[in-house]
Design brief:
This protein is α+β, with helices and mostly antiparallel strands. Helices cover about 25% and strands about 30% of the residues.
Length: about 120
Amino acid sequence: MSLNTSLPFSKIRRAGGLVFLSGELPLNADGSIPEGISAQTDLTLQRIGATLADAGLTLADVVQVTVYLSHQEDFASFNEIYRRHFSAPFPTRTTVVAALVVPSARVELTVVAAEPTPS
């Protein structure tokens, strides 16, 4: 699966000191999706980290996460991997169980990050 770059949304937007990232899926460079929620969560968070790095930010700057899981039974495994990428104080978070646009994806994440205030 490749990303359709003609879709009507931005991957990233800055506004009012915040950085908003559109939904990120667990896509490898070749468009494939790894098996299992753990691998998919790890890849999705790596991709978010890379997008934030391009914007001069890190996962430590994330203040809000919205999680979309396609299978409720993945919640515990998702949290195990999530804790490897975030630490206290954790971002605020909402988790929704719903069908995803890409059927083989088990997770999609959106994040909001706060830009560091100038010293």
